[in-house]
Structure formats: structure tokens, C-alpha cells
Amino acid sequence: MARRHGPAIAIVDGDADSAQIAEFERDRRDLLRRGIAAGGAAVAASSIPLLLSVRNAFAAQSGDLGIVEHAITLERVAVLAYDTLLGGGLLDPSVTRVVKLFRGHEQQHVDALVAAMTALRGAVPAKPSGVKDIDAVVKGIGDVKSQADVIGFAIELETAAVAAYLDAHRNLRDAGLLQTSATIMADEGQHLVVLRLAADTPPVPNAFETGKK
């Protein structure tokens, strides 16, 4: 197993081919050059999401059970991340309301996916419990020091979710699961619009939301 180490993230080879890794590296370097602007503050480079590993976890699955399992973990990580951000005491009342709303949405996603897993007679994965589990999806929650950082981190979290669900659609077979995942992905896209507005960046920069930078 080959590893590539850098100051912000480590890429662990999985089922990705060299073209995917090259594309990710180009995006990562561009972000490192520009920083992630959020409300006039630059979010630390360590908050760049592990998009390659998140996307591979979905795209590499060959069956519905595996995809739903990873989706449950992703959504539970989102709930845990929003709980952590809410508990940091960094948010004004208006942003607190938005983050609480998004946290509630993520929990509803969890509930729907757990119900789907139960219907498939699969095993529901263990709940994430700490920063390490959040860092497996989006690094840097421990570096969040301001409201601008919170917004920037949330943008990265939602971007990772959109990317993952987009790739999941390649392999999902059940029509009901396709519908559920599509509506979840649309909701994550709505979250991105609100967060980008809060960060004073273009709310809809592209005609097609793909989870890429």
C-alpha cells in the first residue's frame, strides 16, 4: 500500500486510479494556493476535505448495502460535526439557527438511511464518537477558531457529501434508494447555497453541483 504524505492531508491508495489522484492533487494544490475564503478569513489548509477517500468509499461499493452503510456513517459524522460546531460558542444567533437546522436535516437523513438498511436486513454501522471520526471525512474541526472558520468547515463538509452521493449513484440499484440518496444530495446542495451566501461567495458557482472545487 502506497502512501503520499503532505503537510495537510495524506492520500492512501485504494480503488482510485492515477487519473483520479492527479485530479485531486491539482484541486488540493489550487486550494492551498488560494486558501478557502470565508467571511474575510482564511480557513486553515488542514480543513480541506479528504474528497478522494470519501468518494472512493462510495464509488468502490458494488452493492446497495455497502453504499448505505457508508452513507449512514457520513451522515452521522455530519451530525457529530454540527454538534461540535454548535458547542464551540463561536456563533451568533442567526448562524446558530442555520447550523441547528442543518444538524436536524442530517439527523433526518440518518433516520431514513437506517430505515433503508433495516429493510435490506443489513447491519447498521457503529456511531462515530469523536474528532478522529470527523477528520476521516473533513479534517480541521479542531482548528476552527471563529464563526468564519465554522462556515468554511461546514462548506467543506457539505461539499464532501455532495461528491460522495454523486458517486454513489453509479452503483445503486434499488429505485427507492436512488430516490432517497438523490433527495439527500439535493438537500446538501441547498445547505451549500446558504453557507456560501454566509461566506460572501457565489452561492451557485456552477450549473451542475459535483462536489468539486
**What best-fitting shape do the alpha-carbon axes yield?**
globular
Helix percent band: 55-70%
Strand content: 5-15%
**Major sheet attributes:** 2 strands, antiparallel
In the predicted model, the low-confidence regions spanning at least 5 consecutive residues are 1-17, 27-52
Q: Determine Rg (CA atoms, Å).
A: 16 Å
Structural class call reads mainly alpha
N-to-C CA distance: 27 Å
**DSSP helix count?**
7
| Helix-strand string | EEHEEHHHHHH
Going across the major beta sheet, what is the strand order? 1-2
Count the beta strands.
4
Average predicted confidence as pLDDT: 78
Describe the protein.
By secondary structure, the protein is mainly alpha-helical. Helices cover 60% and strands 6% of the residues. Helix 2 packs parallel to helix 6 (147-168), helix 3 (64-86) runs antiparallel to helix 4 and helix 4 (93-119) runs antiparallel to helix 7 (175-198). Residues 1-17 and 27-52 have low confidence and may be disordered.
